[in-house]
Amino acid sequence: MIPVMWLVATAYKPPKDMFSSPPAFLFEPTLLNFRRVFEVFDVWQLLKSSLVISIGSAVLSLLLGVPAGYALARSRWRYAIGVAYLFLAVRTVPIIATLLPFYLMMRDIGLLGTWWAVILINTTLNCAFVTWMMFSYFRSLPKDMEEAALTDGCTLWGAFWRVALPTVTPGIIASALFCVMFSWNDFLVAMFLTNSDSKPLSVALLAAFGTKDITWGTLGALAHFSTVPIMLMALFLNRYFVQGLTKGVH
Amino acid sequence: MRFDDRRKLFLLALALPAVVYIAVIALWPLAQGIAYSFFEYNLLRRGGTKTFVGLQNYVDLLTDKTGQRALINTFVFTIGAVVFQFVLGLGLALLLWRDSRFNRICLAFLLIPVTITPLVVGLIFRALLAVDYGYFGYYLAEWGITSPRGLLAGTTTALPTLIFVDIWEWTPLVALILLAGLKALPSDILEAAAADGATAWQRFRLVILPLLLPTVFLALVLRMMDAFRVFDSIFVTTGGGPADATNSLMVYGVKQGLQFFNIGYASAIANVSILCIALMAAGFTLLIRRADVKANER
Q1: Are B142 and A22 contacting, i.e. CB atoms less than 8 angstroms apart?
Q2: I need a labelling partner for B43 at 20 to 30 A (CA). Which of A4, A235, B91, B242 fits?
Q3: pLDDT in tens, B121-174
């Protein structure tokens, strides 16, 4: 717990105590660092970038992954499970392997430096994850209800949308949570694919680190913005979070 | 059209967008990466022309001192981190098994390290271990426990320190997964074992552990794959140094590829890590299967 407390404490520490040697344990709390953060960074713009990237990728991943997971779970095709495993495998590939060719690809079609580039590549991992996760959710769901709905004259789309989908809401929430967390916390991809206008919070944090006029206090304050939203989300959706952990790969 | 055919078409239409997406944006670059790894291809040298060199990039990686070091470091890091995370995580999970108010509060705290941006974790530890103003670093150096330059600057201490950071960050995750597995155990079997007068250790070794095995393997494979891809924490604390002491495959690959634009060599590094991860995953999948079968036989 000490590291977390340090992060919180540092953000409220006055600059003069920051580099005192030996380190100061007691200090007068101040909001100076937060004021400084807003002076140095365009915090709202950074938050907006982080939000656009993570929500954008989550939405796209769900749109692609949920129907695919359903189709693979309900398919009687012999190789459907093989395809599902392929999605799982895609998720475990280290990002560096796809990032290089993807970088060149984005350069060629002129999307380098835009949110789209980051959303697109994050969506490969996220979509693969969602597909696998929803595949395991739908597979553990009995087919009876859908069959009954179909014999009652429900359309195929209706059986999917109105009968099967509502029963897996926890799975969808868990998937969305993980997609958002993954994109929000990434900095490697964003570092290389965005420019100064489109960079998210994480990249700004890394860039700010080690610059002369930015102290640990300012950095700690900025880290608040990067850490607190995800932490709150995970705490409130605790149940889904743990569910996602155990179902995501099994 | 027959109903069965219509169903097939419908399912195909649902699956197709995701399949096409993954094929174009993940598998195609992946295939390109495999192809690049057989070329000498540097964007900054000779105008970025490609020369076919066969397996030379792989040979270079395995014979080059830095490459070997990165490979060894990655394995040491993965095994060291995962073993400790498993032992500590299992202990935590067993402690938090009973449902009580206190335990539920502890659970909420466990979530915190898991959800903190890994980048921020790296920054925090870097500051804490700094010798001139960090809470840990200052006193460790002052009392002569570490060299005056601190844990992260020593070639022998840097890697263990980073392993420690990883343990701090991810042990809670292992605990959470194992706890979910413990809570899913059939209570009648546990009660029967208790009624038979088995001691706590006997119950753990003969009843709980065998039933928990699939979850254990799941937690292990998840962590192994992630630990093998370690990048964030190393990148922001030591950047692979001092003198390659903490260089991992991912850090090395990113440096080669995205800083020196040595695409061919970087692709080879990436492919070697994919191969290692695939082998580990395959091994564990077999173990999970076997454990599943055994658990069902009981």
Answers
A1: yes
A2: B242
A3: 888 888 777 766 666 666 666 666 666 666 676 777 888 888 988 998 889 889
pLDDT digits (tens, 9 = 90+) for A61-100: 999 999 999 999 888 888 888 888 888 888 888 888 888 8
Contact A227 B115 (CB under 8 A): yes
Global pTM value:
0.83
Q: Give the DSSP letter of residue A114.
A: S
Instruction: Decide if B257 and A89 are in contact by the 8 Å CB cutoff.
Output: no
Which of B22, B27, B103 to probe by mutation at the A interface, max A CB count within 10 Å?
B22
Query: Which residues, including other chains, have CB under 8 Å from residue B293's CB and lie 6 or more apart?
Result: none
Q: Which two tokens stand for residue A238?
A: 């605790």
**CB pair distance less than 8 Å for B108 and A19:** no
How many Cβ pairs closer than 8 A exist between chain A and B? 220
How does DSSP classify residue A21?
A: S
- b/e per residue, B89-119, with b = 16+ CB within 10 A? bbebbbebeeeeeeeeeebeebbbbbbbbbb
Secondary structure (3-state) at A194? strand
For B21, which of A72, A127, A216 is closest by C-beta distance? A127
Output the 3-class SS for chain B. Answer: CCHHHHHHHHHHHHHHHHHHHHHHHHHHHHHHHHHHCCEEEECCCHHHCEEECCCHHHHHHHHCHHHHHHHHHHHHHHHHHHHHHHHHHHHHHHHCCCCCHHHHHHHHHHHHHHHCCHHHHHHHHHHHCCCCCCHHHHHHHHCCCCCCCCHHHCCCCHHHHHHHHHHHHHHHHHHHHHHHHHHCCCHHHHHHHHHCCCCHHHHHHHHHHHHHHHHHHHHHHHHHHHHHCCCHHHHHHCCCCCCCCCCCHHHHHHHHHHHCCEHHHHHHHHHHHHHHHHHHHHHHHHHHHHHHHHHHHC
- Give the torsion through C-alpha atoms of B73, B77, B78, B84, to 10 deg: 160
